[in-house]
UniProtKB/TrEMBL annotation:
Its EC number is 4.2.1.3. Belongs to the aconitase/IPM isomerase family. Pathway: Carbohydrate metabolism; tricarboxylic acid cycle; isocitrate from oxaloacetate: step 2/2. It comes from Draconibacterium sediminis. One of its GO terms (molecular function) is 4 iron, 4 sulfur cluster binding. This is Aconitate hydratase A. Keywords: Iron, Iron-sulfur, Lyase, Metal-binding, Transit peptide, Tricarboxylic acid cycle. It catalyses: citrate = D-threo-isocitrate.
Amino acid sequence: MFDLDLVKKVYSELPEKVKQAKGILNKPMTYAEKILYSHLFAAQELAAFKRGADYVDFAPDRVAMQDATAQMALLQFINSGKKRTAVPSTVHCDHLIQAQVEGKTDLSVSKTANKEVFDFLESVSNKYGIGFWKPGAGIIHQVVLENYAFPGGMMIGTDSHTVNAGGLGMVAIGVGGADAVDVMAGMAWELKMPKMIGVKLTGKISGWAAPKDVILKVAGILTVKGGTGAIIEYFGEGAKSLSATGKGTICNMGAEVGATTSIFAYDESMERYLRATGRAEVADLANGVKEHLDADAEVYANPEQYYDELIEINLSELEPHVNGPFTPDRATPISQMKETAEANGWPMEVSVGLIGSCTNSSYEDISRAASIAKQAEEKGLVTQAEFTITPGSEQVRYTIERDGFIDTFEKIGGKVFANACGPCIGQWARPGAEKGEKNTIVHSFNRNFSKRADGNPNTHAFVTSPELVTALAIAGRLDFNPATDTLTNKNGEEVKLDLPTGEELPGKGFDVKDPGFQAPAADGSNVVINVADDSNRLQLLSPFEKWDGQNITGAKLLIKAEGKCTTDHISMAGPWLRFRGHLDNISNNMLIGAVNAFNGETNKVKNQLTGEYDAVPAVQRQYKAEGIPTVVVGDHNYGEGSSREHAAMEPRHLGVKAVIVKSFARIHETNLKKQGMLGLTFANENDYDLVQEDDVFNFVDLVDFAPDKALTVELVHADGSKDAIKLNHTYNAQQIEWFKAGSALNLIKQQNA
Ligand code: SF4
């Protein structure tokens, strides 16, 4: 399944491409820069691109898609007119599998419930030359790390945690389905040349600290916005001391600080992981171009000169962190949790501890967590909270079962869910969640936005390492610090947990009986793709309308969103995941999680036609029926969270014309552009306050839409008064063509024709 020729091609071209780039840049290069400059699209002229400013066309080596996002991506790809994907691509069935009882039962139920979708993905994959990972094979990012990621490579994936592959030295970036379509169709993939944030790691992790704590600490420093538009490059002796999978965990959660991606340079830990996962040839090839799979020595000697921002962390002093609730950047060292939780009134009792997910289910993670679980049994402790394990892949699951870890977890009451996303993405049928009770859970996943795990807005979810999750689940308390505190066992004795121990890689090697992979047909021309007309899960797409060349006028305010408005708020996951392939049906969740700035409520906005308050999608459907354009207004970092292009397609489908915000999360801003929407920012942030509930928007100079030229919109208030405000945008010439054509896909089709 691994494409060795691809690696050979990349490595054979790497030295010359780096040399050429250096000739132009005339300075030492960071590792990420070497990868970026060696992956320029053929028609892209080599130049010294300005970080944070210049848009550059790239040619990624691979594409990966998960089942929820693949539906829309493939529905779009079918419309591109291509016979096979231009680059190796894979589909992974992981997000649609619900966690309820235990792995086998849940998998079987989910396969039946989602049969139509899995069959669709399987047949499209078969037809267009895409590798298909069946339900139960594992979570996209773990499977990619085990099978496809390679140092020096570049990939995109239709999931924001694609960045996980940075742990194996790859520039891997989460995108929307529309970007995946571009690359699969052989088009350039465009990205603003990222800034570079250097994180120098010194010392060595010890005690209860884990690689997870590096990123939990970084999240506390950078916050959810701090990495926006940047690649985070980790280096230093501390970086070398981490396992490849530990590096993967750190890169994975780079998405939580908004980073474009994160990366570590090639080193011995990566070589060990490549060899352990059956890719010794890749390791040998990588060793042959080692000097190019790292930054230049001058960069490390003077990092402040070559990175736009520099952070230093001494791993020897790193404490275990527990981040949350509701946001992954609220970092609390475990030693301060007691007073912090008390001060904030967070429920102290831990009701469930959940380990695994794409973030933390490596052999090393599981073995360290198992070392804690084992102690519970040996020391006569009764686990106080529920405890679940979500393996990241069948290979990991099979190997940890063989090595007795699953047995160890089951002895403390652990429940093993399917190798899938499950509780990490709201696919957790948690008994009693509907009661909405205030409670605390701790998990080793990456995200903890409100409602994300179980749909209950009062579930306080905290993110930490798997070993600490295990300890907190055993103790049943959020303020338990295993480094200092004792627990009372069945015999009334005070016992202390010893430090976690584990193995980086399985001593007996990885093993798996059926990894769950299906190769595509050599010639897919006769493969038939079925989408039933009456399906409520899948719907073939019709192209969006072209721009009529006129200024948009008379647009009504649909909602002025206040505070955090992530892609979960714009297009909620959980039960809605099942409609990912049906644009009209899923549009019934549009912005239902966004808080209306005028009443502080969710999914309750004023219908300007009736004066009544109603659900956002219902109000928007009425405007659409009447042919009235609308505008959505938002706060800072609008659209943070994920690459879900539904968050852009739904408003587009329902007739919203523009989204005007204080600032955007990168992926969402690009997705809006791809779908032919206007994604604009207030030139003066305070103008957000000028927007009133009954406002009408008139664009004054959209007919002159051009790069680097602000737009003007006139707000007409209910009393007839007006405010003219300036709106900035980041559209380049090509993106303006997308807008004019109605969407990027419309333009691709025109060009293919
Ligand atoms: Fe799945 Fe959660 Fe990982 Fe996303 S973050 S791929 S939902 S396990």
